Amino acid sequence: MKRLALDLHYLPCLEYFAVLRGVDELFLFPGDRYERQSYFNRTSILLANKVHTLSVPIQGRRPRISLREVRIDSEQKWINNHLRGIQSGYGKAPFFEYFFPYFEDAFNRGDTQLWDLNLNLLTICLKLLRWPVKLTLVEKEGLPADVIDLRGQIVPSGSYLDRPFYQEVPYGQIFGLNFVSNLSILDLLFCLGGEADRLLAKSQKNTNNN
Questions:
Q1: Do residues 80 and 54 make contact, with C-beta atoms less than 8 angstroms apart?
Q2: Please, what is the angle between helix 185-192 and helix 114-129, to 10°?
Q3: For position 142, what pLDDT does the model report?
Q4: How many whole angstroms separate alpha carbon 81 and alpha carbon 84?
Q5: Nearest to residue 154, comparing CAs of 2, 1, 3, 14?
Q6: Is the pLDDT at 62 greater than 80, yes or no?
Q7: pTM of the prediction?
Q8: How would you list the strands of the sheet with 3-5, edge to edge?
């Protein structure tokens, strides 16, 4: 049985899922401290002319706040912007019409805490990948000895090329002649559908989690 601890990201990148593939149980920590400039509230998608960052606005910038306390700034019209961006980028993708309603429903739930939104989105992604990963929330520090703790490893500061988890495996994207690697899992799901799992298997570096 393979058990792993990771940070919770917003619509995580392919590197995240390359790490997560084959894991039986994932431990998540809502009490961990929020770090600015992290993947907790942002992800990247591909538009016609560029890679575009989707960022969820949050209230305040208080230091030492826990992840569970991070509130979404609902005064900003970010949901419409994100949905429009996703539709613009992937509306013509082969599996868009099958998968988009799951994400649209998640955005329209009206979550006020970013943790709740991210957890729901991760659950949807695992469902669409057909990965039976058990999600376990840990309320205090301390993990069983067999759990691999990779929190703080997948961060924007640095490249996946320098980390031992993910390697680029090109697939057909909607825009551009040059393949763009390590985008949000949305890119892979909308473009490949049920073949996403097979590609993520190839994307795992041989040293992954060893």
A1: no
A2: 30
A3: 79
A4: 5
A5: 14
A6: no
A7: 0.94
A8: 134-137, 25-28, 3-5, 147-149
